[in-house]
Amino acid sequence: MAARNKHRAPFWTVLLLTLLAGCTQPVGDYFFVSTETARTQGGHYDFTLNLDDSTGTYSVRLAARLVAGRLPDRQAAFDIHITSPVGQTTIERKSFPLEESEETRMTAGSSSVVDCEWLLQQGIRVNGPDAGTWRIAVSPTDTALLDAIYGIGISYESDHGKR
């Protein structure tokens, strides 16, 4: 009996550590497209996101490296096309300020280049046919904005395991 209990402790310890390590790692990724790539695609930045975790909610952020002095009104405006795994597309036109706020993170690069990150969508739940590969296409509302953009990025993260 003592020999049998002696092997149980390592088993439970390994199982507990595996569960903790598996539950604490957020699910997500980050993608970046340079301006040069977008110029060849007519100013469109295309991304795919694998949103297949139905146990949590997702947050999606849009990021950009910009020359702040080339932006009129210190805003960046984009048309955002979001296509679900079943092919349903929604189109939004959004303007993002070049000011730090609760939904905007900014990091100064050189004297004129800034890195901005804006909350695009929060609390996204997927299940059934909504779980899978989503496509997001981002394009400036004014093609002159391409001269102010070094690149656009999309990041997404699931809150699964952060509870």
Estimate the mean pLDDT confidence.
75
Q: What is the radius of gyration?
A: 21 Å
Briefly note the structural class of the backbone: alpha+beta
CATH topology: Jelly Rolls
> Major beta sheet, specifics?
5 strands, antiparallel
Judging from the principal axes of the Cα atoms, what is the shape? globular
* Count of helix runs: 2
Q: What's the SSE pattern? A: HEHEEEEEEEE
Q: Beta-strand level of the residues, as a percent range? A: over 45%
CATH top level label: Mainly Beta
**What is the count of structural domains?**
1
Q: End-to-end span in angstroms?
A: 39 Å
Structure write-up:
- The structure is a single chain.
- By secondary structure, the protein is α+β, with helices and mostly antiparallel strands.
- The protein has a single domain (27-158), classed as Jelly Rolls (Sandwich), CATH 2.60.120.
- It is 18% helix and 48% strand.
- The chain has helices spanning 2-24, 35-40; strands spanning 28-34, 45-51, 58-67, 75-83, 89-97, 104-108, 113-124, 132-140, 149-158.
- The strands form 2 sheets. Strands 1-9-3-7-6 form a 5-stranded antiparallel β-sheet. A 4-stranded antiparallel β-sheet has the order 2-8-4-5.
- A hairpin with a 4-residue loop joins strand 6 (104-108) and strand 7 (113-124).
- It is globular and about 45 Å long.
- The two termini are 39 Å apart.
- The relative contact order is 0.30.
- Mean pLDDT is 75; it is low at 7-26.
